[in-house]
Design a protein that fits this description.
By secondary structure, this protein is mainly α. The protein folds into 2 domains: 1-54; 61-326. Helix content is 65%, strand content 0%. It has 10 helices and no strands. It has helices at 14-54, 61-64, 75-90, 110-134, 144-153, 165-184, 197-219, 231-263, 267-285, 303-326. The radius of gyration is 28 Å and the shape is elongated. The termini are far apart.
């Protein structure tokens, strides 16, 4: 018929249109996947390099207490311990273990959270010995600022309210600083560090016990319940043990400065203390992009075993320090 419109055969135009739409959908999907992978990689690299920066404490004993400048015994020890905790509270993203699950000790940014758990455990033992032994002899009273700081640091690291971990730890830092102020007042209101070998042995005992715990975590081949050590658990052990080394690296420097006047006649002890600093520093700053758990004869690294080598070396040095201190108990 004149004027009739011939129907378009089915599929002649719909096919190319449908295939074009499919290609566009796949292209968009590819772009989304690439963007997601790029964002994930950026987050991983950001966390990695951010952690490297965070692992180094913005505090120097030499800058704060230059050689030759007089100090009151206990001042360097307390100031350094306060600086360690303050750094975790007020640098980077602050205290992590009590954060939301995406930013806490579970996924994504869990490395620093696990490291901070190790740090606070080492701070507690270092604080305990300071309060119970290094500033107290026999029937002497406890220093009240140290009692409060010790109690504050034992607050649950996972609590975010009533009270929050941050508020209690910050209060502990303030009482350590109040202790230092009391040392500098006239007359002194704080108990000075006693610089006795028998008390110093207790500190190295506490530290070797912590390093022993770190060694057990790093050396184990299965979890305590017998289940395999999965990749998402492997790095938890790594960073937890690293937190111990971080505290000891800086606190050992404080101990060397605090005890130097009475240790100059015993160069072996000072040499061992200085020797222990190197493995502690390496353990505290070891930062692989991904913590691997390779086989001993495999082609991939086993970062837990690598860290354990430094932890065990520092632990052995501290055993030797304890033996040398025990042999000099007749000295101050």
């Amino acid at each position: 018929m004149d004027g009739a419109v011939e129907p378009i055969p089915s599929g002649k135009t719909e096919g190319p249109i449908a295939s074009g739409r499919a290609r566009m959908t796949l292209r968009r999907l590819g772009i989304l996947i690439a963007a997601a992978l790029g964002a994930w990689l950026a987050i991983i690299l950001g966390l990695h390099f951010g952690q490297i920066r965070h692992d180094r404490l913005d505090y120097s004993i030499e800058a704060s207490f230059p050689s030759g400048k007089p100090f009151v015994p206990g001042e360097i020890y307390a100031t350094t311990l306060a600086a360690i905790v303050d750094h975790e509270l007020h640098s980077g993203f602050g205290w992590r273990p009590n954060d939301l699950f995406l930013w806490g000790p579970t996924v994504m940014a869990d490395n620093n959270a696990d490291r901070q758990i190790g740090i606070i455990m080492a701070v507690r033992e270092t604080m305990r010995v300071f309060k119970d032994h290094l500033t107290k002899i026999s029937s002497n009273e406890y220093d009240q600022n140290l009692v409060i700081a010790d109690t504050d640091f034992r607050n649950d690291p996972y609590k975010w309210i009533l009270p929050s971990a941050e508020s209690k730890y910050d209060d502990g830092v303030q009482h350590l600083r109040m202790y230092v102020a009391g040392l500098q007042s006239s007359p002194p209101k704080s108990s000075p560090l006693n610089q006795r070998n028998i008390e110093l042995i207790r500190l190295f005992q506490a530290w070797t016990d912590l390093l022993g715990d770190g060694h057990a975590m790093l050396y184990r081949v299965e979890q305590p319940d017998g289940s395999p050590i999965y990749p998402w658990v492997d790095d938890d052990y790594f960073y937890h043990a690293q937190g111990y080394a971080h505290v000891m690296y800086y606190m050992l420097q404080a101990v060397i400065r605090e005890y130097t006047p009475t240790e100059r006649s015993r160069p072996v002890i000072l040499a061992l203390m200085n020797d222990a600093l190197d493995p502690l520093q390496r353990a505290a700053t070891l930062k692989p992009l991904v913590v691997l758990d390779g086989a001993p004869d495999g082609i991939f690294a086993n970062h837990r075993k690598n860290l354990d080598a430094y932890i065990s070396e520092a632990r052995q040095k501290m055993y030797s320090i304890r033996e040398e201190l025990s042999g000099n108990l007749s000295d101050p």
